[in-house]
Amino acid sequence: MKSNSIYKEEDTVVPRAELPFLLQKVKETGSKYGFESVCYGHAGDGNLHVNILRGDLSEEAWNIGVTKGIREIFKYVKSVGGTISGEHGIGLVQRPYLDIVFSKTEMKLMRQIKKVFDPKGILNPGKIL
Fold it and tell me: Domains plus CATH for the chain?
């Protein structure tokens, strides 16, 4: 993939029975927003890596359209009992999408827990948690 196109890799997890439907949703969303994807993962734990290829997409389509598509995919994932990260963690890439899977109350609680273990904010500085 790297030799073919710049790409964005998203990490999703859904109940195993939902994997075929998630793959269908990814392909439908790609058609809607004009991107192609290569998907692979770990079927045993419901993990699907969604690699969105830039190809010939314009800057606007890549930075705005694809972002809307990812948000749509993540909302679907949440709706079927999944989450937006399996093994790769949240990191900075999923930061704009946390509101899909966590409420404001949950985010506040996680920040409070981090503060207990890192009162001076020296662990993972500049990150959400």
Answer: 7-97 (3.30.70.2740)
Q: Which two tokens stand for residue 34?
A: 């004009």
Backbone angles phi, psi at 31, to 5 degrees: -65, -40
Report the alpha-carbon distance of residue 81 to residue 112 in Å, rounded.
25
Region for 10 from its dihedrals, namely left if φ exceeds 0, alpha if ψ lies in -120 to 50, beta otherwise:
beta
Edge-to-edge strand list for the sheet holding 36-42: 7-13, 47-53, 36-42
Which residue type does 123 have? L
Query: Which helix (DSSP H) or strand (DSSP E) does residue 3 occupy?
Result: none
Read off the pLDDT of residues 36-78 as tens digits, 9 standing for 90 and up: 999 999 989 999 999 999 999 999 999 999 999 999 999 999 9
Q: Are 72 and 7 in contact (CB under 8 A)?
A: no
Three-state DSSP at 92 gives coil
Alpha-carbon torsion 15, 8, 4, 65, what sign? positive
Asked if 41 contacts 89 with a C-beta cutoff of 8 angstroms, the reply is: no
